[in-house]
Amino acid sequence: MNFELKTLDLASAALQSGDLLIVLVADKQPKTSDALSTLIAHAQKNGDFEAKTGKLLAMYAVPAIEARHLLLLGVGDGSPQAVRQALAAVSGPLTREGIGRAAVVSAQPLADAALHALVQCLADSTYLYRTTKPSAKAVGLQSVVLGAPNAPALGQAFEVANATAQGVAFAREWANRPANYATPKLLAEAAESLAADHKRIKCKIHKPEDVAKLGMGSFMAVAQGSKEPLRFIELHYHGASKDSQPVVLVGKGITFDTGGISIKPAGDMDEMKYDMGGAASVLGTFRALAELKPEINVVGLIPACENMPDGAAVKPGDVVTSMSGQTIEILNTDAEGRLVLCDALTYAERFSPSAVVDIATLTGACVIALGAQRSGLFSNNDALAQALQTAGDQAQDHCWRMPLDDEYAEGLKTNFADVANVGGRPAGAITAAKFLQRFVGTMAWAHLDIAGTAWRGGAKKGATGRPVGLLLQYLLSSAQSAAPAEQAKTVKPAKASKTDKPVVLDKPGKAAVNIDGADKADAQ
Fold first, then answer.
1. Alpha-carbon distance 91 to 124, whole Å?
2. Quick check: 448 pLDDT over 50?
3. Could you read off the pLDDT of 293-350 as tens digits, one per residue?
């Protein structure tokens, strides 16, 4: 998908050629005498259209309008939430056969966040998974012009929005793949492809023998029931000086979760291919970082394996020794995500990070608590928690902070090891976070439980790519905070190299970028 940003008012929008013109109509529409403004005013006066969020009026071959199809779309107060809600109503017209070029124009100036919402909704509406469904008919829409009167002021926001869309698409692609197309080995190859395509990214893959040498007994215990060998993926994005402390992102990479010996019910078990949503979000975030090139160092750690009920699988009641030296009694083999994450969190300490954020589809309890709207946020550091919550709000990829009182850890006590891997049904999302907290030492740490937000079911079943938007915004804000005072107002992408594929910002008011799903080099 090609996105282009232009300076357009309604008069110039009427001259925009293409198959579809969508005009965003807000409550407080500027009064001008051009053809489009006159048309909107007449439609409102006669009761055929109103600016209420999500209201539509479709027209064809309108005189004085160059585009074949015209769609008036109400966006209410023009807030990011209203724009997002309104765009959700036009996925049909956008993907209709014969629509190859479209323009979306706002008569009012767009806020950065509203532009971000616009780009994300358009990218989401036109995303199509085809890796294992070649018969799926490709979306005809190939290019979208985004028009606003204040386009010159939106250049940086446009770059971030496009990079986010690139990262989200990459994460969705890998999370949507069935488990036999997204094994630990293939996930590692995707990480290696990222590093091969972008010079600021380096990749190191730890194989089973390497993980054994590291003493990751907890991680290895989860993987031992599968014929697919584990992979421990280590990514490095270098955007700042070598002595600059990195942020470490740790993504749960269970490429399929049967529950092990504590096997899951058969219903909806196919959705356990999404149990590597945390890993996918780390890959997607690195894809976005490669586009923007912010001045920050980031480490990505992905413990990837399957959780299978083989004869060699770990059993309820088994005790394993983690990399930290703490012993763990595995009371439930379906609480495996925390077992792979705890060793990765211990490994993260060697980088002396400024912060560690783990991302995991960890608990059904978090789905019950927060549903599909917000990811669960747990942290031992108030400043980090606030920064993540603010980043989520800015990216419209929301989270909600949950408690971590010491009393919640009481249920993890056991007579047979230092800690049990489950603490009973009450407060299940919190006790899971308390388990992870044992392995972070004094590091500033946050845990994002994305079990309710990483994918959706029903007719639109598929991965969402969350929380790539939240993570990217947090990293950009961290880079800005770390910049010298005289440079702290903006964090601009570095000059592109010949091997990079950056957003193209040609001149004020006109920018273009190409957004695809996975890179061709990453297709398996």
1. 9
2. yes
3. 999 999 999 999 999 999 999 999 999 999 999 999 999 999 999 999 999 999 999 9
Helix (H) or strand (E) holding 449: strand 445-449
173 labeled part of a ligand binding site? no
126: tokens are: 């036109």
The per-residue pLDDT for 93 is 87
All residues at 6 or more sequence positions from 207 whose CB lies less than 8 Å from its CB, including other chains: 229, 230, 231
295 is in an annotated binding site: no
- Distance between CA atoms of residues 142 and 122, nearest Å: 11
Query: What is the average pLDDT across 453-474?
Result: 96
Active site residues: 264, 338
Please give the sequence-ordered ranges of beta strands (E in DSSP) within 363-418, or none if there are none.
375-379, 399-401
Block residue for tokens 């083999």 = 333
Asked whether residue 234 is marked as a ligand-binding residue, the answer is: no
60 DSSP β-pair partners = 69
Q: Which two tokens stand for residue 104?
A: 């979306």
Is 334 annotated to bind a ligand? Reply is: yes
Give me the pLDDT at residue 483, please: 66
Task: Please give the Cα distance from 183 to 188 (Å, whole number).
Answer: 9
Q: Which two tokens stand for residue 341?
A: 């994450």
Whole-Å CA distances, 211 to 219, 337, 363, 380: 8, 17, 25, 28
